[in-house]
From TrEMBL:
The gene is ga23996. GO terms for molecular function: aldehyde oxygenase (deformylating) activity; iron ion binding; oxidoreductase activity. The lineage of its organism: Eukaryota, Viridiplantae, Streptophyta, Embryophyta, Tracheophyta. This is aldehyde oxygenase (deformylating). It holds the Pfam family FA_hydroxylase. It is a multi-pass membrane protein. It is an enzyme of class 4 (lyase). It comes from Eleusine coracana subsp. coracana. Residues 133-267 form the Fatty acid hydroxylase domain. It catalyses: a long-chain fatty aldehyde + 2 NADPH + O2 + H(+) = a long-chain alkane + formate + 2 NADP(+) + H2O.
Length: 282
């Protein structure tokens, strides 16, 4: 809870006038306990997970094949409405019951301990951007190794095979996983903020951005005009689609965000070989 209730008291505490965003934040959160602000993340995650995949899902379901096929990574595969609904219901329930429930509840004392801020000042845009870059790098590195472990025979058969039920991924499949995988691969998202603590608004934004990134990666589409093309070393949908296409036997493309971990550890060879073979045949 912010220890002052008015903009004047806030300006005195900061030693400068409050920005419009800071005055708004103070007005709406000064009486809100910190744990409420933190748990609001669960509502934000659920709204983002429900709304962000919708445009791609509608394109997959109702887009004319003539228009969409050139951009589909596996154009012969069309996912039914029933499969979309089952995918959403299953993953939303698990997300709500696990990630938004216990993981957020259990992490609250740790979040307070590492110093996630809830008050003023609000972070500058540059600070937010730098923190998000760090969080993505941490998540990518840890996610790479955890995903690689999930491809060990026992872990794949017991846990990871659920996520691979979609050999041709679709937007909602980003969160379609066994509960143990949601907990395992969801944990690195908390490590970045633990190493570099941020403001709670950055924390909310981080969970939305990483959710949207996972949806993009599982979209099943490769658009020529995607802004992600400008992100250095970004893997994207084509990179991850190959991993789903090969399935259990795949020993390539474990990293969830960027391409460099697979390059450094030599787990991009299968994909490179396939690309080179296709180029030779054409
Ligand atoms: Zn996998
Ligand atoms: Zn996947």
């Amino acid at each position: 809870m912010i220890p002052y209730a008015t903009a004047t008291a806030g300006a005195e505490a900061l030693g400068r006038p409050l920005s419009w965003a800071e005055a708004t934040w103070l007005r709406y959160t000064s009486a809100t306990p910190d744990y409420c602000l933190y748990y609001l993340n669960s509502v934000i995650i659920m709204i983002a997970y429900t709304l962000a995949p919708l445009p791609l899902a509608l394109l997959e379901l109702y887009g004319p094949a003539k228009l969409t096929s050139p951009y589909k990574l596996q154009p012969k595969v069309r996912v039914s409405r029933a499969a979309f609904l089952r995918c959403y219901m299953d993953s939303a329930c698990r997300l709500l019951v696990l990630t938004c429930g216990p993981l957020l509840v259990v992490s609250y004392p740790a979040v307070k301990m590492v110093g996630i801020r809830m008050g003023l000042p609000l972070p500058a845009a540059g600070e937010v951007a730098a923190q998000l870059v760090v969080y993505f790098l941490v998540e990518d590195y840890l996610g790479y190794w955890l995903h690689r472990l999930l491809h060990a025979e026992w872990a794949y058969d017991k846990i990871h095979r659920v996520h691979h039920e979609f050999a041709a991924p679709v937007s909602f499949a980003s969160g379609y996983s066994h509960w143990a995988e949601l907990l395992t691969l969801g944990s690195p998202a908390f490590i970045g903020p633990a190493i570099v603590p941020c403001h709670v608004t950055t924390f909310w934004l981080w969970f939305v951005v990483r959710g949207v990134q996972a949806i993009d990666t599982h979209s099943g589409f490769k658009f020529p005009f995607s802004p992600t093309k400008f992100i250095p070393f970004y893997g994207g949908a084509e990179f991850h689609d190959y991993h789903h296409y090969v399935g259990k036997q795949c020993q390539s493309h474990f990293a969830p965000v960027f391409t460099f971990c697979d390059y450094i550890y030599g787990t991009d060879k299968g994909y490179r070989y396939q690309k080179a073979s296709l180029a030779k045949d054409n």
